[in-house]
Amino acid sequence: MTPPIVTVLLPVYNGDRYLRAAVESILAQTFESFELLIVDDGSTDGTEPICRSFTDPRIRVVRHEQNAGLVSALNSGIDLISTEYVARMDADDVALPDRLGRQVAFLESRPDIAACGSWARELVDGRLRAVMRRPTGEYLRQTAWRPVPIFHPTACLRTEVLREFRYRADYVHAEDYDLWLRLCQHHRIDNVPKVLLHYRIHRASVSHAYPAVQRSSAWRAFREHFPAIDVALVDFEALTGVSCEVSPLTRMRLRRPWRKHLFGTVTASARDDLWYAARWLQAQVRGARRRS
To answer: What is the pTM of this model?
Structure first.
């Protein structure tokens, strides 16, 4: 049997509600040269029986007897991977059938790229909503400091690169942002400008359950990688667009002292201004609708 080209790394902890749909979406990929590595991080719900219910030989299940956290689960999975590429997958998302094929083809055609992501579409209460776009090409390189340059569950990386950088537990719930900041210091990344994943949003998801911890961890990662930028947490949220509470003009004034550290060109800086202005305007419209 020919060895697989890509390993899909899927860590899970008490994820029985959506796990089956996530696994089935991987098994339905048009690109068949893969293995699915499920790392069950000590689940106490129905996760283990669901994992064992699949008989597809491409699935490998590793179970931790005790919950050690996402970073530990990811790093232990990395140690077991021998394929050329590794694709991340979360236990509550749905991969579109052409995801692996498109991303592997992209990396095969671009040996200068260490990792790629894709666009995603929000999945809320079973309904598809807004498309979540990410920058591509040179503009991504110039704005990779914004959380996040690649949606983590859409990531596909060269295994040797991921094995070199790994994940760090110091930045809980923002371990992916920390990874991209470190990786971009030495390698190029990009995004496939196509929706390849349905990103499920629910109350138990990290961004909804631990927003304060996630933002604080992202801020600390940013400060480590940009020590010359002495920015407070509240200003970091405005600078990176995590929060759209300040006006575009106020944000322009805020980032003026650090523009040279963040942007390579005036064009990229101006484009960033337009990007934030659009996000701010959308936030204003949503707020007006809620008040009416």
So the answer is: 0.93
